[in-house]
Amino acid sequence: MTQHPTSTLDHLSESELTVKLEPELLPKHVAVIMDGNGRWAELRGLPRIAGHREGINSVREMITLCLELGIHALTIYAFSQENWNRPTQEISALMGLLEHYLSTERASLIEQGVCFRAIGRHELLPPSAQHWVRMTEKETSHLDKLILTVALSYGGRAEIVDAVKTLLEDVQTGAVQPGLIDETTIQQYLYTHSLQDPDLLIRTSGETRISNFLLWQLAYTELCFTPTLWPDFRRREFLLALIEYQRRERRFGRVLSTVSS
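User: That's the sequence. What structure does it adopt?
Assistant: Structure tokens below.
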């Protein structure tokens, strides 16, 4: 993992950075913890929600670049279970922003071929937000150029608990034999069962933890931490993170090469 990806490339232009990408070494699935919206706004003397609004532009740029580069899946941490502990006014503003995003961006997602999926305990969302989530999922379900998964009212531990509960129900009905349960079985009960695990996790704003995000799925994911606040994380920062990723040697516990004496 790294906190300052490819700082030696800071002098290069976006086009020069793009040339350095090797298509066969790019991640197929990128996950992002979008952190720093509130701090971005506070540094500018703005209300915190202004940072969240600006952060939507970063989401747009990541979607565009994923489509350009052929990255198949993008999963973003939009609202955690812990976020319900924030002030009521901020939560209300965030839910309103979610509804605004889905109502205004849905047509663009469809035009770009983006399949929208939401994961988490959606029953906790306001009814109007649930409506827009379900509608967007339905209207984009047939698309496959990019799978955009948005974690809403999400917690990694809660996901595992929900998976275990559903698995136990199937054990009780005889649909699953206890002795045959393995990691593959459990994976099939996760919210992300239709996706491969992320190859790369990016967290912005300088924090170096995963904050209860995709706990099962991140077992072998490459981690990239950057001090850039999410609203400032645009195309250039994403390119730098991808270049850093393609320099990694992903071993998955194996020894891929040896050094001769």
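The longest strand covers residues 146-154.
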